[in-house]
């Protein structure tokens, strides 16, 4: 059986990511984040753009001196001053890379750079040649590649390969391309550029149409072997391809993307959390993989399925991406199974009638509040207990509830042996939770309906 090929993960959280509004980082913050990226297992850390400020120069220098395993890259425009400055910041690195870039689209050449195509090609070639005289590892990016004339793009790429580039990066700078078109472009480059087989084809996608990860996956399918991405997908405008989404798409679907990465997936959530803490920019709750709701279930139909077997509604385990556990959000869409489970987790084992009763209280409460928290449930348990002591017409249960003894935390406790919690081994097998609930057909039917 043939070995799966590895895709290089080039993390640009500290460079392109830092360019997103509100995400700038001090040198110390970049260093903290770089240590976490090292733990995460990224292959390349783009630490900054040294010519942009003394602070950024210093940040790149700090990262280059301390982080020894990954390649450390620094960005430079295609002029000697930039390239020289990048090298000065990088030269203490164990594995330095100079990353130089120039736009190749007519829009950028005419309006932004006022360069002819010929001048563009010469400038790119000269910068790579100079960078190569300083550093063995040189990446060239053709900014706005996806809106460039493909033939001209290929000419420039061939010129920089001849000048010594070791990686050629194809950025979708404005997030304009779509997966099938981007795959075609990568194939065209592989067909037309002489020497391309000696270098790594890299892609760098922005998310203006929400397609950055899809475009990166399509490019890998077409032969790209390096993907530039950021934690939490931060970056210019709508951001860059999200590292966690790209990596987990390949891990969850090896049948479609038979590639490896060196990423330690359990470090994805800690990396996301650290970045949010450092920048003060929170992650959107429904963000794939690492958002607060990525492993949260509220609908009764989903909670019911999850309790029976997590494979029903989760395609990866939370543990596999470093999220502590699945969260059942109790709200107006939740069913009695999830409520019963949460009560058990809080230490209350209820019989069927008690569960019916507390579920009625719960539904009334959930109608008027967004989510029902543990303190609400404790209040409902107290209410149930009061009703047991002083039955009123609203309480139907003639049974003595099995609540009453106190646990160490002072909760009114079922006084039973510890109850099982849903748990999984994190291996991705999705073993069913250990709690068996509700054998009554009506319970199940009602849970089902709640979710619809
Ligand atoms: O989006 C882009 O084109 C870039 C390049 C500098 C790689 O960030
Ligand atoms: Zn970019």
Instruction: Note the beta-strand portion.
Output: 5-15%
Please give the largest β-sheet. Answer: 8 strands, parallel, barrel
- CATH architectural type of the largest domain: Alpha-Beta Barrel
Shape, please?
elongated
Quantity of strands, as a count: 14
The CATH topology of the largest domain turns out to be TIM Barrel
> Helix/strand-derived class?
alpha/beta
The CATH superfamily of the largest domain bears the name Aldolase class I
Ligand types: 3-methyl-2-oxobutanoic acid, zinc ion
Number of helices: 15
CATH class of the largest domain: Alpha Beta
* Overall helicity: 40-55%
Our Rg estimate from Cα atoms comes to: 28 Å
Would you tell me the overall average pLDDT?
87
**Number of separate structural domains:** 2
Strand order of the largest sheet: 2-3-4-5-6-7-8-9
Structure description:
The structure is a single chain. The longest helix has 18 residues. The strands form 4 sheets. Strands 2-3-4-5-6-7-8-9 form an 8-stranded parallel β-barrel, surrounded by 7 helices. A two-stranded parallel ribbon has the order 1-10. The protein contains 15 helices and 14 strands. Strand 7, helix 7 and strand 8 form a beta-alpha-beta unit. With 452 residues, it is an alpha/beta fold. The two termini are 45 Å apart. Helices cover 41% and strands 13% of the residues. The protein folds into 2 domains: 275 residues, TIM Barrel, CATH 3.20.20; 122 residues, no CATH class. The protein is elongated, with a radius of gyration of 28 Å. The structure holds 3-methyl-2-oxobutanoic acid (KIV) and zinc ion. The site of zinc ion has 6 residues, from loops.
């Amino acid at each position: 059986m043939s070995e799966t090929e590895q895709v290089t993960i080039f993390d640009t959280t500290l460079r392109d990511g830092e360019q997103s509004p509100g995400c700038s980082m001090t040198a110390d913050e970049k260093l903290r984040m770089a240590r976490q990226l090292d733990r995460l297992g990224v292959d390349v850390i783009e630490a900054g753009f040294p010519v942009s400020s003394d602070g950024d120069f210093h940040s790149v220098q700090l990262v280059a001196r301390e982080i020894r395993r990954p390649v450390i890259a620094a960005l430079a425009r295609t002029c000697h001053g930039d390239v020289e400055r990048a090298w000065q910041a990088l030269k203490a690195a164990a594995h330095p890379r100079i990353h130089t870039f120039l736009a190749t689209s007519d829009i950028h050449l005419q309006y932004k750079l006022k360069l002819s195509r010929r001048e563009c090609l010469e400038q790119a070639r000269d910068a790579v040649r100079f960078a190569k005289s300083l550093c063995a590892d040189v990446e060239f990016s053709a900014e706005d590649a996806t809106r460039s004339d493909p033939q001209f793009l290929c000419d420039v790429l061939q010129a920089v390969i001849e000048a010594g580039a070791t990686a050629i990066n194809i950025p979708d700078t404005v997030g304009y391309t779509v997966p099938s078109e981007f795959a075609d472009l990568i194939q065209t480059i592989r067909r037309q550029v002489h020497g391309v087989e000696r270098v790594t084809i890299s892609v760098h996608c922005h998310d203006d149409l929400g397609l950055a990860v899809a475009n990166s996956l399509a490019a890998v399918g077409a032969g790209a072997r390096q993907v530039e991405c950021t934690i939490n997908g931060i970056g210019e405008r709508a951001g860059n391809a999200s590292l966690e989404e790209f990596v987990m798409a390949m891990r969850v679907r090896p049948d479609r993307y038979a590639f490896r990465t060196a990423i330690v997936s359990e470090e994805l959530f800690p990396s996301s959390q650290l970045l949010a803490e450092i920048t003060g920019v929170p992650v959107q709750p429904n963000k794939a993989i690492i958002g607060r709701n990525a492993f949260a279930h509220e609908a009764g139909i989903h909670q019911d399925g999850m309790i029976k077997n997590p494979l029903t509604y989760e395609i990866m385990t939370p543990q596999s991406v470093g999220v502590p556990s699945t969260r059942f959000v109790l709200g107006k869409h939740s069913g009695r199974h999830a409520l019963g489970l949460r009560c058990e987790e809080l230490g209350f084992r209820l019989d069927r009638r008690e569960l019916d009763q507390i579920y009625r209280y719960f539904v009334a409460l959930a109608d008027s509040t967004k989510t029902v928290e543990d303190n609400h449930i404790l209040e409902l348990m107290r209410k149930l207990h009061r009703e047991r002591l002083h039955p009123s017409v609203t309480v139907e249960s003639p049974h003595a509830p099995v609540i009453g003894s106190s646990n160490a935390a002072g909760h009114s406790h079922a006084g039973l042996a510890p109850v099982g919690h849903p748990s999984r081994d994190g291996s991705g097998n999705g073993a069913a939770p250990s709690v068996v609930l509700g054998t009554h057909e009506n319970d199940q039917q009602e849970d089902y309906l709640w979710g619809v």
